[in-house]
Design a protein that fits this description.
The protein is of the alpha+beta class and 93 residues long. The protein is built from 3 helices and 5 strands. Helix content is 25%, strand content 22%.
Length: 93
Amino acid sequence: MDGRRKTPIRSCVGCRVLSDKGKLIRIVRSSDGEVRVDSTGKAPGRGAYLCGKKDCLKQAIKHKKLGRALRCEIPASVAEELETYVVEDDAEK
């Protein structure tokens, strides 16, 4: 063994693109049912990941992909908080 650790790979619930876990935004539903953004990436509970693109966030909320992944309803306050984490897609064009 060479001592290097394997980087965990996760997929965005909006666009289903695979990426390194550290590059994605994690949303977690805790055992008491609270849904929040997990900035550490290590909070206990059921997690779902978003890549941070504006269109992916819209699709994940509109088509209830995020709620399905977390197996609960997504509060409007969490959706608003997620908008602060998204990047503009226009920068890529």
